[in-house]
Write a structure and sequence with these properties.
about 220 residues; alpha+beta; 4-stranded antiparallel β-sheet; 8 helices; 11 strands
Length: about 220
Amino acid sequence: MQISSYLKKMPFILHATEEEMNAAAQQAYITHFHKGEVVHARAQAECLGAVLVLSGSLCASMISDEGRQILLYRLEEGDSCVFTARCILNMLSYDAVVEGESDGTMLVVPVEMVNQLMKNIRVENAMQRLAIQRCAQIMCALERVLFTPVDKRLALRLLQAAEKKGEWKLSLTHEQLARDISTAREVVSRTLGKFVRARLIEVCRGQIQIIDPEGLKNYNG
């Protein structure tokens, strides 16, 4: 597929003129990322630009000085992000790290091109809307961490993963789950133990089998 075809999957690009679209297609590029690779961080000297995930997935997290991590949102195939062009969107920037959750590829519109595109007021408005939607996701993520108990967050994560996979057997490590619900690995292990004793799940050979979805959904310590 040509880069111009990928570009049309970025919501704000649809508001560009044909001339702007052609210029963006000439400057945009496809790059690979690996699991655990940091593709964007506020501390980096260079600003990446707007991105579209073509395969694999990225995750954006806030990390404290003590190493505590809060997952803010995921970017999966077909998702766009403009916060990676935060040097342009300074008013909505935040101190976060975007890294590969799995190996994959992404389309990057360099920040210089993003800057040119934003001279078109319709493109700028579309980018600001996209940024505000992402801010809403971030607020929801922070709200869950602050006000939802760990056992509820873990139960919800397991049920969401099962729904996405289409089966009740999951191959998720304690470390993955800890990152997903923004807690410590030891807390996940203890909470899974509670679920096992309540006969809501079974854990065997690194896999989690949900045996009582309704009970897990309504679990109350």
